[in-house]
Amino acid sequence: MAVDPLRELCDLLARLPGVGERTAQRLAYHVVRQSPDYARALAQALLGVVDGVRTCSRCQALTAVEPCAICGDPQRERGVVCVVANPQDIASIEATGEYRGLYHVLHGVLSPLEGIGPEEIRARQLIARLPGEPPVREVIVATPASVEGEATALYLAGLIRPLGIAVTRIAFGIPMGGEIEYADKLTLARALGGRRPI
Amino acid sequence: MLAQTLTLTDFRNVERAGVELAPRLTFLVGDNAQGKTNALEALAYALTLKPLRPARLGDLVRRGASTAVVDVSLTGPALPWQIHVEVEAGGRQVLVNGKLLRDPANLLGAVALVAFTPDDLALVKGAPELRRRSLDRFVFQVQPGHLRHARDYQRALRARNLLLRRLDRDRRSLDAFGEMLAIAGARLMAGRHLGISLLRPALTRRHRQLAPDGGELTIDYRPALAGEEAAAGLDESAASERLRQALQEALPLDLARRQTCRGPHLDDVELALDGVPTRRFASQGQSRSIVLALRLAEADELRRARGEGPLLLADDLLAELDDGRASALLTTLDAIGARVVATGTRLPPGLSAATAGCAIYSVRAGRLSRAN
Ligand SMILES: Nc1ncnc2c1ncn2[C@@H]1O[C@H](COP(=O)(O)OP(=O)(O)OP(=O)(O)O)[C@@H](O)[C@H]1O
Ligand SMILES: [Mg+2]
Ligand SMILES: [Zn+2]
User: N or C: which end of chain B has fewer CB within 10 A?
Assistant: First the structure.
């Protein structure tokens, strides 16, 4: 049976977060009305993401090059690592212009209710990189201010403190439950500045 | 803010209805099983997102319909609000002034609300959970952060209990979520302390008015964390330290029982008449006065905290009270400045189509019609 390509595009778009049937339809029709070059470029970009993006072996961020641009930048301060839950949190913190250290992406937070345990977040990779050259002297935990985000920070502190490395938590002026993604630049810059030991 | 109008679509047995809320009293009158409580519940639901009676979301949707909609308009010193709630069996959506509501705490703050329903009698002799919930609901309204603390505590508790049930029982994760329990639990307890200290004097006073010969009614917080200092009220960091310690001590027990055996999820609130806990002896009549005194005390304190009378929902008013007490109650509420919405199978004595500031609706088979 022949598939209806337009229908199929709608169905696929509707699987994106925040996109309902109606929006998917609008997007699909929009693509059709554009010049074919746009659709080809979009398809290429999608393929590029699939084939070209991997996680950085050092910080676990999404990247096309190995190591990622931040890990590879000789100007970054190597003794400080900021731990975030999601890859997109890096962009938010970079936008503040206040932070010059490295990152580590957990790809999640501990959440027994969703079956996410220590093995499902990249905590082991974090511990493994701490004794590097030069060794890390401060870990800043910037997980969300939710119950799970806070518990994850406490969990990491329990692992890291015995190694003699300072563990700090960014001071959330961000509302409780707040995702870093939604915090504005100024709040986030203040949160980074006012971090406290865990 | 003041609730002005209520509109229901496919909510319970009401296909479509609109109610103009009168400044003093709006009375919904009709025979049994016609939809009076349903209409009252729609109003409570739009303001608290909790039904008046235990129900699943799908129960709120009229049989044969797919979506229940409740609209409530509020006015206040600042801008008017439009609350729009859509309920389906699979979920609900709330729009405030056309914008999606992310945090229900923002809604709970809008209107001070006290509900008095026949089920409340169980507060006196029923399980501690009922009293905890009643207290928390009051505290949410005087201290909006309390809702978040209660929810955080529940989330951390569920997480820790799940970890206790798992075979590996990863100690570090247990500790991390235990610490979250200690932090959120201390805030939860602080809120409950605050609530009790606000209610205590008003409750005793109100009860004395309602039952002059009925003995002195007192209310006390009984935290599950034993210890005099816990009952007397600790500051937050001392309370979380106490909780942390209790969790440590009880860990072997928790591991054996596979659940958290200490903490404010087991708190109680004690009501006592002349020092004797009412849970053990209160008669029906005594229970009625006690619950009524409690709700009036809440109304008093909400009025004080907000500078405006609360919205008081009284379901089945005359089933609970004889005519004399019902009219005395309405007079009292009027003095508090409460805006009352009540239901009953007949009108309370003295209320007629001509009473100023009052609206009467008759309810029949899910239809509401204005009778004055
Ligand atoms: N989802 C629903 N769809 C249709 N009807 C419903 C729904 N939920 C409840 N009902 C009906 O609503 C009626 C009860 O309405 P309600 O509880 O408001 O009665 P009431 O007028 O308060 O009566 P009473 O005086 O006995 O308290 C019942 O007949 C019940 O079957
Ligand atoms: Mg009823
Ligand atoms: Zn990297």
Answer: C
